[in-house]
Amino acid sequence: MNQPLPFGVGDSGRSAPIDLTEIMDKVAHGDKQAFSALYDALAPLVFGIVVKVVRDRAQSEEVAQEVMIDLWRQAARYRPEAGAVTAWAATIAHRRAVDRVRSAQAAADREQAQAAREHTTAFDEVSEQVETRLESEQVRRCLSGLTELQRQAVTLAYYRGLTYREVAEALRAPLPTIKTRMRDGLIRLRDCMGVTT
């Protein structure tokens, strides 16, 4: 097969009009020289249609090349009664260009969605860490406002997991006293932290 001309470059030296229907018939039968003539005749049209849709020259050249390969492969499917060869080629070019734009948009949308998910996840993790740290600082501040017995009782019960009886034994205090101190301490903690019931 002759080396095709680059897109956008036509054979301006051609003097007689060519019969594209006849050429397409030859292409359908595997005639490589006929395809070279078809290429020269249709490449500028195909590229022009594609570049209007895709708007990126490099991608347009790639899509136009794919269209020309489609014309070679599908030449046997062309029916003259359905329309001119140029109309058929233009339809294929337009469809391919639209497909490329949709594919590129879908890929961009996926990338954007992934970036948004990653950003949200990172933001949520940082936000959660900050919130936990602030709450811890507030709890420490509120615990420092309790009496010594209240602070010890609450700390043993809630941070070490001891029962009321175990707290009473650890602090060598009567169980009713521990229960009262813990209740009073928890009320003060609740008020300090602004928790509403």
UniProtKB/TrEMBL annotation:
Q: Which residues form the RNA polymerase sigma-70 region domain?
A: 38-105
Nucleus recorded as keyword: no
Q: What keywords is this UniProt entry annotated with?
A: Sigma factor, Transcription, Transcription regulation
GO biological-process terms attached to the record: DNA-templated transcription initiation
The GO terms describing molecular function are: DNA binding; sigma factor activity
Name of the protein in question: Sigma-70 family RNA polymerase sigma factor
Residue ranges of the RNA polymerase sigma factor 70 region 4 type domain?
Answer: 137-189
Q: Which organism is it from?
A: Streptomyces ficellus
Which NCBIfam families does its entry note? PRK09646.1, sigma70-ECF
Q: Which family is this protein grouped under?
A: Belongs to the sigma-70 factor family. ECF subfamily.
Kindly give the Pfam families that the UniProt entry links to this protein. Sigma70_r2, Sigma70_r4_2
